[in-house]
Fold this sequence. Notes:
By secondary structure, the chain is mainly beta. It has one helix at residues 15-25, and strands at 34-38, 42-48, 57-62, 65-77, 80-91, 102-105, 110-116.
Amino acid sequence: MLQLPTIQTPPMFGDDTLLRSIDWLGGFPWKQENVVKKEDDKYELVIQVKDYAPEEISVKTADGFVVVEGKHEEKQDNYGYIARQFMRRFQVPEGCRIEGVQSRLTADGLLIISVPRVPVVKKDTVIAVKHEGSTKSKL
């Protein structure tokens, strides 16, 4: 008896479809976990830290990076004990003034870190032409 190979078709509405739709929704404003904005006048980081108290979050600069850390000690909740911590490093692009870093924490748990950019001045530059000894004979 001749057997033909079976071809499996993906289900019309399966886990893959659900996961793809969740990924598609990830770009909407209500899902702001970590956002990096590179604007003309500033470099801005927006990080979701709603699970941390202000005193549990630290922001510092080190070797051209902005380093954000959050940590809270073990706490008891309805299900047992939980401890959380994270550390993120973001490399600051060229042209930014790392000494001007500012951070603020919003009421809804977004940590916003801004690094000002040095304005790029576009102007005409005249380049001097150096004259070297001429090998042409003058008439």
